[in-house]
Amino acid sequence: MKQATVQSGKGIGTLAVKDVAVPRPGSGEALVRLHAATLNFRDLIIAKGLMPGLGKEPEVIPLSCGAGVVESIGSGVTHVQPGNRVSPIFALGWLDGPTPTMEMLGGPVDGVARQYAVFPAESLVHNPDQLGDLEAATLTCAGLTSWSALTRHRPTRPGDWVLAHGTGGVSLAALQFAKGMGAHVAITSSSDAKLARARSLGADLTVNYRTTPNWAEAIRKALGGSKIANVIDTVGGTQFDDNASLLAEDGQISAIGMLGSQFSWMKGETGVNMVPISVGNRAQHEAMLAFIVEHDIKPPVDVVFDLDRIQDAYHALEAGRFFGKVGINLL
What we know:
This protein has helices at 41-48, 133-136, 139-151, 169-180, 192-200, 215-223, 240-245, 282-294, 310-319, and strands spanning 2-7, 16-19, 29-38, 59-60, 65-73, 85-88, 116-120, 124-126, 161-165, 184-189, 205-208, 228-233, 247-255, 274-276, 301-306, 325-329. It is of the alpha/beta class. The protein folds into 2 domains: 2-141 and 280-329, Medium-chain alcohol dehydrogenases, catalytic domain (Quinone Oxidoreductase, Chain A, domain 1, Alpha-Beta Complex); 153-276, Rossmann fold, CATH 3.40.50. Strands 3, 5, 6, 7, 8, 15 and 16 form a 7-stranded mixed β-sheet that branches. A 6-stranded parallel β-sheet has the order 11-10-9-12-13-14, sandwiched between helices. The radius of gyration is 19 Å and the shape is globular.
Protein backbone atom coordinates (compact mmCIF):
# COMPACT_ATOMS: atom_id res chain seq x y z
CA MET A 1 0.00 0.00 0.00
CA LYS A 2 0.98 3.66 -0.34
CA GLN A 3 1.64 5.72 2.76
CA ALA A 4 2.74 9.34 3.25
CA THR A 5 4.95 10.65 6.03
CA VAL A 6 6.18 14.09 7.03
CA GLN A 7 9.07 15.02 9.31
CA SER A 8 7.42 16.96 12.12
CA GLY A 9 8.49 20.59 12.08
CA LYS A 10 10.82 20.16 9.10
CA GLY A 11 8.51 21.53 6.42
CA ILE A 12 6.28 20.54 3.53
CA GLY A 13 9.33 19.48 1.52
CA THR A 14 9.82 16.49 3.82
CA LEU A 15 6.52 14.91 2.77
CA ALA A 16 7.22 11.58 1.11
CA VAL A 17 5.14 8.68 -0.21
CA LYS A 18 6.40 5.12 -0.06
CA ASP A 19 5.18 1.53 -0.34
CA VAL A 20 4.70 -0.39 2.92
CA ALA A 21 3.02 -3.61 3.98
CA VAL A 22 -0.71 -3.65 4.73
CA PRO A 23 -1.20 -3.96 8.52
CA ARG A 24 -3.39 -6.56 10.22
CA PRO A 25 -5.99 -5.86 12.91
CA GLY A 26 -5.49 -7.23 16.40
CA SER A 27 -8.02 -7.86 19.13
CA GLY A 28 -10.55 -5.01 19.30
CA GLU A 29 -9.27 -3.46 16.09
CA ALA A 30 -10.51 -2.98 12.52
CA LEU A 31 -8.55 -2.69 9.29
CA VAL A 32 -9.98 0.13 7.15
CA ARG A 33 -9.40 0.56 3.42
CA LEU A 34 -9.25 4.35 3.30
CA HIS A 35 -10.72 5.96 0.19
CA ALA A 36 -10.42 9.70 0.83
CA ALA A 37 -8.88 12.23 3.18
CA THR A 38 -8.91 16.02 3.58
CA LEU A 39 -6.44 18.57 4.92
CA ASN A 40 -6.76 21.03 7.80
CA PHE A 41 -4.64 24.04 8.77
CA ARG A 42 -3.51 21.88 11.69
CA ASP A 43 -1.60 19.76 9.15
CA LEU A 44 0.45 22.81 8.15
CA ILE A 45 1.07 23.60 11.83
CA ILE A 46 2.55 20.14 12.34
CA ALA A 47 4.60 20.09 9.13
CA LYS A 48 6.06 23.54 9.79
CA GLY A 49 6.48 23.18 13.53
CA LEU A 50 4.34 26.24 14.28
CA MET A 51 3.41 24.59 17.59
CA PRO A 52 6.47 22.55 18.61
CA GLY A 53 5.73 19.14 20.03
CA LEU A 54 2.37 18.72 18.34
CA GLY A 55 3.63 16.17 15.82
CA LYS A 56 5.13 12.75 16.59
CA GLU A 57 8.92 12.68 16.22
CA PRO A 58 10.80 12.20 14.02
CA GLU A 59 8.00 11.71 11.50
CA VAL A 60 4.27 11.10 11.42
CA ILE A 61 1.72 9.84 8.92
CA PRO A 62 -0.22 13.09 8.47
CA LEU A 63 -3.89 14.06 8.23
CA SER A 64 -6.70 13.48 10.71
CA CYS A 65 -9.74 13.34 8.44
CA GLY A 66 -10.49 10.28 6.33
CA ALA A 67 -13.19 7.86 5.25
CA GLY A 68 -13.29 4.35 3.85
CA VAL A 69 -14.63 0.84 4.29
CA VAL A 70 -13.91 -1.79 6.94
CA GLU A 71 -11.80 -4.52 5.31
CA SER A 72 -11.48 -6.94 8.24
CA ILE A 73 -11.84 -7.03 12.02
CA GLY A 74 -9.99 -8.58 14.94
CA SER A 75 -11.41 -10.72 17.68
CA GLY A 76 -14.03 -9.26 19.99
CA VAL A 77 -15.20 -6.55 17.58
CA THR A 78 -18.95 -5.92 17.41
CA HIS A 79 -19.14 -2.15 16.73
CA VAL A 80 -18.30 -2.53 13.02
CA GLN A 81 -18.32 -5.29 10.42
CA PRO A 82 -16.50 -5.78 7.10
CA GLY A 83 -18.15 -3.67 4.40
CA ASN A 84 -19.25 -0.88 6.77
CA ARG A 85 -18.50 2.66 5.57
CA VAL A 86 -16.64 4.41 8.38
CA SER A 87 -14.39 7.23 9.53
CA PRO A 88 -11.98 7.22 12.47
CA ILE A 89 -12.69 9.83 15.12
CA PHE A 90 -10.23 12.67 15.71
CA ALA A 91 -8.98 11.58 19.15
CA LEU A 92 -8.92 7.79 19.31
CA GLY A 93 -10.69 6.49 22.39
CA TRP A 94 -12.59 9.74 23.08
CA LEU A 95 -16.03 8.18 22.94
CA ASP A 96 -17.95 10.53 25.28
CA GLY A 97 -17.48 13.18 27.93
CA PRO A 98 -15.59 16.50 27.93
CA THR A 99 -11.96 15.35 28.16
CA PRO A 100 -10.15 14.35 24.95
CA THR A 101 -7.49 11.69 24.77
CA MET A 102 -4.06 12.61 23.44
CA GLU A 103 -4.39 10.01 20.64
CA MET A 104 -5.11 12.67 18.02
CA LEU A 105 -4.69 11.52 14.44
CA GLY A 106 -2.01 13.07 12.27
CA GLY A 107 -0.13 14.58 15.23
CA PRO A 108 0.68 12.62 18.37
CA VAL A 109 -0.36 9.42 16.54
CA ASP A 110 -0.22 8.41 12.88
CA GLY A 111 -3.02 9.71 10.68
CA VAL A 112 -4.91 8.77 7.54
CA ALA A 113 -2.62 9.68 4.61
CA ARG A 114 -2.38 6.00 3.66
CA GLN A 115 -4.46 3.43 1.84
CA TYR A 116 -4.98 1.02 4.74
CA ALA A 117 -4.92 1.64 8.49
CA VAL A 118 -5.79 -0.22 11.68
CA PHE A 119 -7.88 1.61 14.27
CA PRO A 120 -9.55 0.68 17.56
CA ALA A 121 -12.97 -0.46 16.33
CA GLU A 122 -14.80 1.60 18.95
CA SER A 123 -13.10 4.72 17.58
CA LEU A 124 -14.90 4.43 14.23
CA VAL A 125 -18.17 6.11 13.27
CA HIS A 126 -20.57 4.77 10.66
CA ASN A 127 -20.90 7.08 7.66
CA PRO A 128 -24.40 7.51 6.23
CA ASP A 129 -25.22 6.63 2.63
CA GLN A 130 -26.18 10.28 2.04
CA LEU A 131 -22.51 11.29 2.21
CA GLY A 132 -19.80 10.31 -0.24
CA ASP A 133 -16.37 9.39 1.08
CA LEU A 134 -14.87 12.82 0.34
CA GLU A 135 -17.79 14.55 2.03
CA ALA A 136 -17.52 12.32 5.10
CA ALA A 137 -13.78 13.00 5.18
CA THR A 138 -14.39 16.72 5.77
CA LEU A 139 -16.03 16.15 9.14
CA THR A 140 -13.61 14.52 11.58
CA CYS A 141 -11.74 17.71 12.50
CA ALA A 142 -13.17 20.78 10.73
CA GLY A 143 -16.81 19.73 10.71
CA LEU A 144 -16.86 18.49 14.29
CA THR A 145 -15.01 21.58 15.53
CA SER A 146 -17.77 23.76 14.08
CA TRP A 147 -20.46 21.46 15.46
CA SER A 148 -18.96 21.68 18.95
CA ALA A 149 -18.67 25.47 18.70
CA LEU A 150 -22.35 25.78 17.80
CA THR A 151 -23.80 23.19 20.19
CA ARG A 152 -21.66 22.34 23.18
CA HIS A 153 -21.24 25.50 25.28
CA ARG A 154 -23.86 27.91 23.93
CA PRO A 155 -26.44 26.04 21.87
CA THR A 156 -27.35 27.96 18.73
CA ARG A 157 -30.95 29.18 18.64
CA PRO A 158 -33.21 30.13 15.71
CA GLY A 159 -32.73 33.79 14.90
CA ASP A 160 -29.19 34.00 16.29
CA TRP A 161 -26.48 35.67 14.25
CA VAL A 162 -23.27 33.66 13.73
CA LEU A 163 -20.08 35.24 12.33
CA ALA A 164 -17.52 33.02 10.59
CA HIS A 165 -14.25 34.25 9.14
CA GLY A 166 -13.03 32.91 5.81
CA THR A 167 -14.31 30.15 3.59
CA GLY A 168 -12.31 27.16 4.78
CA GLY A 169 -13.70 23.92 6.11
CA VAL A 170 -14.47 25.14 9.65
CA SER A 171 -16.22 28.33 8.56
CA LEU A 172 -18.31 26.70 5.83
CA ALA A 173 -19.33 23.84 8.13
CA ALA A 174 -20.41 26.48 10.65
CA LEU A 175 -22.40 28.22 7.90
CA GLN A 176 -24.19 25.05 6.87
CA PHE A 177 -24.87 23.85 10.42
CA ALA A 178 -26.01 27.25 11.68
CA LYS A 179 -28.44 27.64 8.77
CA GLY A 180 -29.85 24.21 9.58
CA MET A 181 -30.37 25.43 13.15
CA GLY A 182 -32.36 28.43 11.96
CA ALA A 183 -29.63 31.01 12.56
CA HIS A 184 -28.42 33.86 10.35
CA VAL A 185 -24.79 33.79 9.21
CA ALA A 186 -22.27 36.48 8.30
CA ILE A 187 -19.10 35.49 6.42
CA THR A 188 -15.92 37.47 5.78
CA SER A 189 -13.36 36.77 3.05
CA SER A 190 -10.86 38.60 0.85
CA SER A 191 -12.43 37.08 -2.30
CA ASP A 192 -15.68 38.25 -3.85
CA ALA A 193 -15.88 35.00 -5.80
CA LYS A 194 -15.68 32.94 -2.60
CA LEU A 195 -18.25 35.19 -0.93
CA ALA A 196 -20.61 34.58 -3.84
CA ARG A 197 -20.20 30.83 -3.31
CA ALA A 198 -20.85 31.32 0.41
CA ARG A 199 -24.11 33.09 -0.43
CA SER A 200 -25.09 30.10 -2.57
CA LEU A 201 -24.74 27.98 0.60
CA GLY A 202 -27.05 30.33 2.50
CA ALA A 203 -24.85 33.11 3.92
CA ASP A 204 -27.10 36.06 4.84
CA LEU A 205 -24.37 38.72 5.00
CA THR A 206 -20.95 38.75 3.33
CA VAL A 207 -18.13 41.29 3.70
CA ASN A 208 -14.86 41.50 1.77
CA TYR A 209 -12.36 42.53 4.45
CA ARG A 210 -9.78 43.53 1.83
CA THR A 211 -12.00 46.07 0.10
CA THR A 212 -13.75 46.93 3.38
CA PRO A 213 -10.94 47.10 5.98
CA ASN A 214 -13.38 48.22 8.69
CA TRP A 215 -15.37 45.02 8.28
CA ALA A 216 -16.61 45.05 11.87
CA GLU A 217 -18.31 48.40 11.37
CA ALA A 218 -19.82 47.19 8.09
CA ILE A 219 -21.29 44.18 9.89
CA ARG A 220 -22.53 46.34 12.76
CA LYS A 221 -24.39 48.63 10.34
CA ALA A 222 -25.84 45.74 8.36
CA LEU A 223 -27.16 44.08 11.53
CA GLY A 224 -28.88 47.22 12.78
CA GLY A 225 -29.56 46.56 16.44
CA SER A 226 -28.73 42.87 16.33
CA LYS A 227 -25.59 41.37 17.85
CA ILE A 228 -23.47 38.31 17.11
CA ALA A 229 -24.32 35.27 19.23
CA ASN A 230 -21.26 33.23 18.24
CA VAL A 231 -18.02 34.13 16.47
CA ILE A 232 -16.31 31.19 14.78
CA ASP A 233 -12.81 32.53 15.39
CA THR A 234 -10.40 30.84 13.00
CA VAL A 235 -8.04 33.82 12.70
CA GLY A 236 -6.92 34.38 16.29
CA GLY A 237 -6.02 37.29 18.54
CA THR A 238 -5.41 39.84 15.79
CA GLN A 239 -9.20 40.14 15.31
CA PHE A 240 -10.19 39.72 18.94
CA ASP A 241 -11.20 43.31 19.69
CA ASP A 242 -13.33 43.62 16.55
CA ASN A 243 -15.01 40.28 17.24
CA ALA A 244 -15.71 41.23 20.85
CA SER A 245 -17.23 44.56 19.79
CA LEU A 246 -19.91 42.72 17.80
CA LEU A 247 -20.78 40.19 20.49
CA ALA A 248 -24.17 39.93 22.19
CA GLU A 249 -24.26 40.08 25.99
CA ASP A 250 -24.68 36.30 26.17
CA GLY A 251 -22.56 35.69 23.07
CA GLN A 252 -19.51 33.51 22.66
CA ILE A 253 -16.20 33.73 20.85
CA SER A 254 -15.35 30.18 19.80
CA ALA A 255 -11.54 30.22 19.78
CA ILE A 256 -10.52 27.72 17.11
CA GLY A 257 -7.69 28.86 14.86
CA MET A 258 -4.54 30.88 14.35
CA LEU A 259 -4.66 31.71 10.64
CA GLY A 260 -3.58 35.31 11.30
CA SER A 261 -1.93 35.29 14.72
CA GLN A 262 -1.75 33.37 17.98
CA PHE A 263 -4.91 31.68 19.27
CA SER A 264 -7.35 34.09 20.93
CA TRP A 265 -7.38 31.98 24.08
CA MET A 266 -3.71 32.87 24.59
CA LYS A 267 -4.71 36.45 25.42
CA GLY A 268 -5.59 35.44 28.98
CA GLU A 269 -8.41 37.06 30.95
CA THR A 270 -10.44 39.40 28.73
CA GLY A 271 -13.85 39.70 30.36
CA VAL A 272 -15.34 38.19 27.19
CA ASN A 273 -17.02 34.79 27.00
CA MET A 274 -14.26 33.05 25.04
CA VAL A 275 -14.33 29.26 24.74
CA PRO A 276 -11.44 27.18 23.33
CA ILE A 277 -12.94 24.49 21.09
CA SER A 278 -11.30 21.06 21.23
CA VAL A 279 -13.00 19.26 18.31
CA GLY A 280 -15.32 16.60 19.86
CA ASN A 281 -15.95 13.00 20.86
CA ARG A 282 -17.57 10.04 19.08
CA ALA A 283 -21.04 10.77 20.49
CA GLN A 284 -20.86 14.34 19.18
CA HIS A 285 -19.61 13.11 15.80
CA GLU A 286 -22.58 10.74 15.58
CA ALA A 287 -25.00 13.53 16.54
CA MET A 288 -23.47 15.74 13.84
CA LEU A 289 -23.91 13.01 11.22
CA ALA A 290 -27.58 12.60 12.16
CA PHE A 291 -28.09 16.38 11.80
CA ILE A 292 -26.35 16.37 8.41
CA VAL A 293 -28.66 13.63 7.15
CA GLU A 294 -31.76 15.38 8.53
CA HIS A 295 -30.86 18.66 6.82
CA ASP A 296 -29.33 17.17 3.64
CA ILE A 297 -26.03 19.00 4.10
CA LYS A 298 -23.32 18.47 1.49
CA PRO A 299 -19.87 19.69 2.67
CA PRO A 300 -17.91 21.31 -0.19
CA VAL A 301 -14.59 19.84 -1.36
CA ASP A 302 -12.98 22.23 -3.82
CA VAL A 303 -9.94 20.40 -5.20
CA VAL A 304 -8.66 16.82 -4.93
CA PHE A 305 -5.10 15.51 -5.32
CA ASP A 306 -3.86 11.92 -5.57
CA LEU A 307 -1.75 10.78 -2.62
CA ASP A 308 1.41 10.96 -4.77
CA ARG A 309 0.79 14.72 -5.02
CA ILE A 310 0.30 15.36 -1.31
CA GLN A 311 2.95 18.11 -1.39
CA ASP A 312 0.86 19.96 -3.98
CA ALA A 313 -2.18 19.57 -1.74
CA TYR A 314 -0.28 21.16 1.16
CA HIS A 315 0.85 24.03 -1.05
CA ALA A 316 -2.74 24.63 -2.19
CA LEU A 317 -3.83 24.74 1.44
CA GLU A 318 -0.96 27.07 2.35
CA ALA A 319 -1.81 29.47 -0.49
CA GLY A 320 -5.52 29.54 0.32
CA ARG A 321 -6.42 28.45 -3.19
CA PHE A 322 -9.55 26.55 -2.20
CA PHE A 323 -13.15 26.88 -1.01
CA GLY A 324 -14.16 24.51 1.75
CA LYS A 325 -11.68 21.65 1.75
CA VAL A 326 -8.65 20.28 -0.06
CA GLY A 327 -9.05 16.55 -0.61
CA ILE A 328 -6.77 13.55 -1.12
CA ASN A 329 -7.79 10.57 -3.26
CA LEU A 330 -6.57 7.35 -1.63
CA LEU A 331 -7.98 4.87 -4.15
